[in-house]
Amino acid sequence: MSVHLQRHQAAVVLLLLAFLPSGLTIPDPRQREALMQLEASMQTGGQTVLTDAELQLDTLLFKMKQEEMLRADFPPAMHFFKARHLIRTSPIFSLLQKMPKGGALHVHDFSMVDVEWLVKNATYRPHCYMCLTDNQSIRFIFSSRRPRPLSHCSPWNLLETVRAKMVNTTELDNSIMANLTLFTHQDPATVYPSQDVVWDRFEQIFLALWGLVTYAPVFRDYYYQGLTEIYTDNAMYLELRALLPEIYELDGSTHDTAWTLKTYQEVTRQFRADHPDFFGARIIFTVHRGVNISVMTDAVEEAMKLRRDFPEFLAGFDLVGREDKGRPLWYFRDALSLPVERGVTLPFFFHAGETDLEGTEVDQNLLDALLLNTSRIGHGFALLRHPVARDLSRKKGVAVEVCPISNQVLKLINDMRNHPAAALMSENHPVVISSDDPAIFGASGLSYDFYEAFVGFGGLRPHIAFLKEIAVNSIRYSSLAPKQQEEALALWQKKWDKFVSEITQ
Ligand SMILES: *[C@@H]1O[C@H](CO)[C@@H](O)[C@H](O)[C@H]1NC(C)=O
Ligand SMILES: *[C@@H]1O[C@H](CO)[C@@H](O)[C@H](O)[C@H]1NC(C)=O
Ligand SMILES: *[C@@H]1O[C@H](CO)[C@@H](O)[C@H](O)[C@H]1NC(C)=O
Ligand SMILES: *[C@@H]1O[C@H](CO)[C@@H](O)[C@H](O)[C@H]1NC(C)=O
Ligand SMILES: *[C@@H]1O[C@H](CO)[C@@H](O)[C@H](O)[C@H]1NC(C)=O
Ligand SMILES: *[C@@H]1O[C@H](CO)[C@@H](O)[C@H](O)[C@H]1NC(C)=O
Ligand SMILES: [Zn+2]
């Protein structure tokens, strides 16, 4: 319907152009108005019809945005690490925190929870050992006995004993925290001068987190806490990209992939029971793109099996890790074609185009993702440079999962106002906003990324209709079946109406 309207409006403009007398020195204001309206109607939210209360909120937001743009330090023009404390004082940010944002569709398993919780909760549990690697990074393990030494790491120290000998543990706790996040109060440009440096640190963080979060009791509580952070930020649904690793117990015994998935499902059920207005969560099984073909083939087999055993809970499959260093999708084409060959449904949610390496093999991932029938595109940062992929994504309704803060911290963009999603949203390309690895970037939930999208690449113009449409998109482009989407939308609408009436009163 929106395409129809736009065509109709385009026709009006053409008519206007045709009937205007030629040779005018000053352009006709009516023509100008028509062109402006046409563009406004094409952007995200441009076709949304607003209620009276929403219009009232719209006026309020417009004023807030004008004031925000007058701030001496405009947060979206700065690195997020420097902007965060400014964003926290922004009235728009506090409004976005209250806003029901729908679903978080692009979040990874081990970056859901604020690192302070990990340090204050996980590392304070009994039997927690830590060692220091040759590279000054840390590793953890929980064990009932003294664990065997790890190569390239100092002897294991029981944290309980280490802390007992200290008068003040603040410094130790802060240094552990600093190992588990990229966030820093130093100058980010100096600490992370290149993509290689920031990705190396990123990978060290995952290794440091590993022994903490794959310990069964922590694993459960970590996920519950992750859901809490999303729920507290007023999102109601999650699609979590999860590696489903082996989870271990204190005696060193381990659980398999199916156990891990089942545990996610049980904790999700528990969370829903405790918070009935939370809609739920689904898992996208992920595998590192650095693996070889036989490992990938096994992973796809495993994914098909899990999908059969957990059809309601396992949403699909994806590859993770740095695209520029990993293998391209095309390399795995045989493994990734197995489901179609066997007539088995395994939806894909590929990361693609998280790169600025134009013209490389990795840069082909966008087209290959679409060829492989991906349901959504993770990041799609390079989409503007692929007109065919862009067109296909639009026509097939393959939404792009835009994660602004991630793109900035991982050094694809400096100033949010120049983010390529601005162009996509100016023509209402299917887009959702998400947070990727919020804890590692020093963010949480969705609000910080909504802020960057709304204030940064949204510009002055878009207001409430823009926000409404991206929230609705997160349900419309979710992996939920049509009937579940309707239920989720109804729940969201109730929250939205309450939000609008509370703000405008
Ligand atoms: C960690 O959090 C869990 C779940 O909220 C709680 O039961 C436990 O007592 C906490 N442990 C510590 C050491 O803070
Ligand atoms: C230490 O850093 C070097 C250089 O970045 C890297 O090649 C090596 O794998 C790292 N070692 C460990 C144990 O992470
Ligand atoms: C512990 O040390 C930190 C600084 O390292 C300091 O800010 C804090 O006040 C100290 N706490 C106590 C209880 O002395
Ligand atoms: C990680 O922790 C170790 C030990 O506490 C510390 O020496 C090191 O500086 C920390 N690394 C970072 C990046 O903060
Ligand atoms: C693929 O990788 C796995 C795990 O690293 C290894 O065990 C296996 O030998 C590799 N297979 C081939 C064919 O290289
Ligand atoms: C493409 O994916 C959708 C959604 O998972 C599925 O319904 C459809 O059958 C798939 N088509 C092909 C050709 O694989
Ligand atoms: Zn990601």
TrEMBL record:
Enzyme Commission code: 3.5.4.4
Subcellular location: Secreted
Family matches, as InterPro entries: A_deaminase_dom, A_deaminase_N, ADGF, Ado/ade_deaminase, Metal_Hydrolase
Catalytic activity: adenosine + H2O + H(+) = inosine + NH4(+)
Boundaries of every Adenosine/AMP deaminase N-terminal domain copy: 30-96
GO CC terms, sorted: extracellular space
Biological processes annotated in GO: adenosine catabolic process; inosine biosynthetic process
Cofactor(s) required, per the database record: Zn(2+)
Superkingdom, natural source: Eukaryota
Entry keywords, A to Z: Hydrolase, Metal-binding, Secreted, Signal
Segments forming a coiled coil: none
Ranges where the Adenosine deaminase domain occurs: 198-487
Signal peptide: 1-25
GO molecular function: adenosine deaminase activity; metal ion binding
NCBIfam families (UniProt xref): adm_rel
Family: Belongs to the metallo-dependent hydrolases superfamily. Adenosine and AMP deaminases family. ADGF subfamily.
Protein's UniProt name: adenosine deaminase
Organism: Mastacembelus armatus (zig-zag eel)
